[in-house]
Specification:
Chain lengths: ~190, ~250
Amino acid sequence: MMFALIFIAAGLSLLGFLIFLFSRMGSHSQDEADQNAAASLLAADAALWAQRLGERIFSQVDLEFILKESPSLRQKLLRERRGIALLWIARRKDAARAVMRLHRLVARTNVALSPGLEFKLAANYFVFLAACGLAEFLVWLRGPFASRKVVSSLITVGDRMRSLSEALLGSLDPVLLEEIRNRRAGQSQAS
Amino acid sequence: MLSDTIFWLTNVLIALLLLQAVRRRFFTKYVLFFAYLTYVLVISLVGFYVYSFRLEAYLSFYWYARFLSVAGGYCVTWELFTHVLRHYPGTAKMVRCLVSVFFLAVLGIALVDAFNNEASGLVESVIRFERNLQAIQALLLTLLLILIRYYAIPLGRNLRGLVLGYGFFIGVGIVTLTLRSLVGASFQLWWQYLQQGSGLIASAIWVQAFWVYAPNPKPDVFIRLEEDYEVLAERTYRAIAKARASVLRVFQS
């Protein structure tokens, strides 16, 4: 019976993965995917430079000011700040995703790839994403100000991701980097 | 009647696919896959003849043919891995490592079972034996799908159809074989319909995917790095490890 369940699980997980993979594959070509990855890295870099914003979002100062000057606005402030805080955490995750995406794009064609390092990297990355998910849940549940402690830790994380992002950008081929910047500039002008 | 219709419809689709592959000259591009389909078609027709005119020999013919068919399926899986990873030596290295670990684990389990005298239980019937072989294939294909997703490997029209059709066929096959082995003869009719139905759906997917030859896209935008892979990976690892540790510390305190 135990074996039977394992076999059925193996079959169903294959079918599940097929559905998951093919439903997400879409019509994006390879070129688009690579451009998006590189461009989002640049966007992430810009987002990481705004670390101070995170400190401001979760700061108690605004809440204290509202409580002192106009307590009736407390609920409105909490509601709006929760939305902003969730968006801010989502951006931290996006930054980590962009860094990892670039790493994978480089690693997949690199013969020097080390499976051991890749495993460690993937494990750490997914644990980080889970921690961010937990932080999002806490902010949603308790509000941004009560979750200050968690978020202050995420700010530290963001700093580390920024240094990594800088290192990656520094090591990119300058010609390619210029191409990406030009493409992004063209896109923003068009929009 | 329904069974006969599915049987002939599947064979017509496979014949159409083979004809198209020969006519458009891409038979050799996926030689193992098309050889497998040729084998399936020939065995189906020979099986029909044996069933109609030499019924006493049908049972042994059927199981030998099934066994060879599963063995042929491994060749298709191998071809799938080769085509998907052709332009991705880094991912291919990862796959080699994972597949080696996987086969060592399978070998270990088989040895433990042999010492516990349970091996006969695993291979006591052809259905269970076939199921075990298909389960290994299912796990290999799942591994490939995970890596395709993780490393964002693009699939062309042909490979997409091959992965989808073959994965579907194997996935349904392992579930139905397990249920057949578990439930017994009362599931026989359903098993037959489900097996034939999955074969028909897979054939339809393949006909659509292989109507024209479409080579797999190459990763034409290579992101070049001036620094060594190991330095990059180590730096990425350290940054995310520290990040994770600092987040976890908060939850632990």
